[in-house]
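Example record for the data management plan.
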Amino acid sequence: MIQTDILIIGAGPTGLFAVFEAGLLQLKCHLIDALPQAGGQCSEIYPKKPIYDIPGFPEVLAGELVDNLMEQIKPFQPGFTLGERAESIEKLEDGSFIVTTNKGTQHQAPIVAIAGGLGSFEPRKPLLENLQKYEDHGVEYMVKDPEMYRDKRVVIAGGGDSALDWSIFLADVAAEVTLVHRRNEFRGALDSVEKVQQLKNQGKINLVTPAEIVGLHGEDKLESVLIRKKTNAVEDFTLAVDHFIALFGLSPKLGPIGDWGLEIEKNAIKVDTFDYQTNVPGIYAIGDINTYPGKLKLILCGFHEATLMCQSAYQRIFPDKKYVMKYTTVGGISGFDGSKKEAPKAVVKAIE
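Corresponding structural encoding:
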């Protein structure tokens, strides 16, 4: 039986940062993740994807962000159960919880923080007749290594942040980048939309809207796509390509967590924004897996939620203790191994 103060389900960026905030409060954390390594989607799906909205980093690769978070939490020596999925939860008479994984590993903690991102997920695929034939032979649903597209002809389909960000990034990598979207309006950040327009004006990106991919062609691998442009009159044309990247998002599933008696709304866990606690006292949900009025699915919002969650968790574990606000620039960070270092990166809560 693994025992800890806060059991975090999900080792993505939000879960990792929760370890840091809990460590400042001298709370021990253990993380469970179904993936074989920490980092969540940032490590598994797009480690080379640039992220532009992390404070203090004009641009940081998703994998680098995970590396930095792992370095940041090192003084607090978190435990990890990787490659196992949280399967069931049981509440004991003392108010603590036992979470058992699909491999039978048991964990006990007074606080459970669900930071499972989108839960289990799979890419949303376009409805194309011979799509499966070209999977791993020119058709991809995520970008793991941008160098794969060096000097290649790439067509990207999608209208969200991923489609925009990768179009911008690959404009300096690929020989040719074409972005296809079924509408003239994009769902991504306005700054990214403006960058794509600028690159289009500079001749670095071909922007085709409103349009969609309606056919794939090639012998053993993808050689061309059929694009249907929807203006006043429907116009079909063939574009020679080496890669078609379909970025239509992920189809999330809560998995076993959906059977834990938590209040669910649109495949997400409802929480109270005071401390991001669920309808079950002692169980919190932070990051993309939760929902509340005004919710934004951004990593930086997950960091904020993790911070308030840890404050509330401390009060639940030690209801008679008080704390005052101080800064890491004053006292530094004390690790559980007795080490201490200056770390002017976050607010520290000094326990009285």
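Summary line stored alongside the record: The helical segments are 13-24, 41-44, 62-73, 131-134, 161-170, 190-201, 299-317, 328-331.
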